[in-house]
Write a structure and sequence with these properties.
CATH architecture of the largest domain: Sandwich
CATH superfamily of the largest domain: Regulatory protein AraC
Number of strands: 9
Radius of gyration: 23 Å
Strand content: 15-25%
Structural class: alpha+beta
Number of helices: 11
Shape: elongated
Length: 295
């Protein structure tokens, strides 16, 4: 005996240009029928929150699936899977497509080469899928946009919930962000963590989907923007604060990555603030709280 609820959508060409669209959502539990063998032309994330079963991909190998777990079904990949016939499983799935899937794959959020991914917790992903299911109510004028936004949330939730996420990634990223503006090479950053440069590259790629150099640059440029927007520090001083002794090099790098020069960025971000510019440099480790408005 099994129970199934599902809805399918056909986003318009305009919605397709959002980059990521939801094509369907479903919730199932019990001793479900075997799926496949089949091949799809879009992506599906199958979240198994209870029970177990098996998965077989193009290589013919059978992989055990034990909840909580994620099964990736990717375009053009033959697959075949099922819940255990005796106990079944609890499953939620989302079909999705769009050009943004290529970027999510490049960043490591979608893993075609690892179709079965152990999760530490299925609840956040189930919550995102629940938002899609609620948006699927009849007559919802925001259906395509709501469900597309929820797919983005789902991909982030699944990335966070991987059972191996915190083994080496998150602490390393936190340390790199803390030390990003120090004049250290990637090799020196690695040595501070007792790692080789190759090990650091692997850890950062797995956790953030980019190289250590790109991650450090992203942190530095974000900090530079904050200083340009919230202080009157000269550009040369901003450059030094974020780790660049050569202000001309910093300006060229900023312009190339941001698309506008530091001085122009500051002019664009300028605001008429009561009391003028703050003389305090914002502390990224201690963001201010926003008190509730009274009355």
């Amino acid at each position: 005996m099994y129970h199934t609820w599902m809805r399918y959508f056909t986003p318009s060409p305009v919605h397709q240009r959002l980059g990521l669209v939801c094509l369907g959502v479903g919730l199932q539990h019990g001793a479900l029928p075997t799926v496949g063998p089949r091949t799809l032309d879009h992506h599906v994330a199958v979240v198994v929150s209870a029970g177990g079963g098996w998965y077989r991909g193009a290589d013919g190998r059978r992989t055990t699936v034990t909840a909580p777990a994620l099964i990736w079904l990717t375009p053009g990949t033959p697959h075949h899977y099922a819940a255990d016939t005796g106990t079944g499983w609890d499953e939620a799935f989302v079909d999705f497509a769009g050009p943004a899937t290529a970027t999510y794959t490049e960043l490591g959020y979608i893993e075609p080469d690892r179709p079965v991914v152990p999760l530490s917790d299925a609840a956040p992903a189930r919550a995102a899928i629940g938002r899609i299911a609620r948006a699927a109510r009849p007559g919802n004028p925001f259906l395509e946009v709501e469900t597309g936004a929820a797919v983005h949330e789902l991909l982030v939730a699944l990335r966070r919930a991987r059972a191996d996420t915190n083994t080496d990634g998150a602490p390393v990223l936190a340390a790199l962000a803390r030390d990003a503006c120090r004049p250290l090479t990637v090799a020196e950053h690695a040595a501070r963590h007792g790692m080789t440069a190759a090990e650091l590259r692997t850890a950062v790629r797995r956790a953030a989907g980019c190289s250590p150099k790109d991650y450090l640059l992203t942190v530095r440029l974000g900090r530079a923007k904050e200083l340009l927007a919230t202080t009157e520090l000269p550009v040369a001083a901003v450059a030094r604060r974020v780790g660049y002794d050569d202000p001309a090099y910093f300006s060229r790098l900023f312009t190339r990555r941001v698309g506008t020069a530091p001085i122009r960025f500051r002019a664009q971000q300028g605001r008429a603030v009561h009391g003028g510019w703050s003389t305090r440099v914002p502390d990224p480790e201690h963001p201010p709280t926003i008190p509730p408005r009274s009355g």
